[in-house]
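Entry:
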Amino acid sequence: MPAAPSDAKKPDWPKTAAGTVDWEAVFDHPETGLLAQIARAETPQALREQAIAIIQQLFSRKGDEADAAKLTSELSDLIADTMPPDRLALVHYAVTATFREIKTFRQKKAAEYELAKANKAGTAERRTAGKSPQSIKQALARKKQRRMMMAIASVVAILGIGAGAFFYLRGPLHPPRADQILLQQMRSAAAGGSARTHVYGGALQTRRWLGDVTIAAENIPLDACIAVGAILARSGTLTVNGNLLERGVIDAAREVCKAATAPIRLSWIPAQ
């Protein structure tokens, strides 16, 4: 049985300049990110164990135990060792999507905290400049009220994202589109996956040189080139048949992909 979240060592997450957790790096670093760890899981057992380990890291604070236990139970039921091989890609996609929801939620809370901190600092400066200091009794009362409101907000936030992920994993799994699977396969290859072909049947190659990794996918359909190219260009350097896609937007991807002569080849160097 996995260790309880309260017993796990608190993760030493990277921080932003403002002092909050850098959730972009935590989830999406090409080598050490949580999603890279998920991408490297190529069997049901490995996927289940890695996902549960990540849940323990994300829900490790006091009071998170019930949510961590709920998600862990759902993951254990969802990812069985006897799961048919053709279902692994769907479950892999669902688990990844759930963790991306958690990432988005935590980025939002971090941004709200940074804004509140900046506003508080500005208010304190204005009070110091133009008003007399409040009494000790008033300061203690305000501090107690803020702590109570923060505690309530924290509980609601944790339960909210836990319930959302729980519902997502428990709900029916709809097959992802082929371009979504290709995107996952290229990310998995960057994280160390061993697949040699992609969902469209073309070659999927990985080359590592001087600390960089290049993922090349051959024989990509035009629609997939546009959809996947626009996303990968936001997190690294992407070329289409050797032509650089400078902006990670659909319009730019459409222009570059349509100009490419078949067969289309995507080459991606993830940002470090």
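The CA atoms of residues 5 and 85 lie 31 Å apart.
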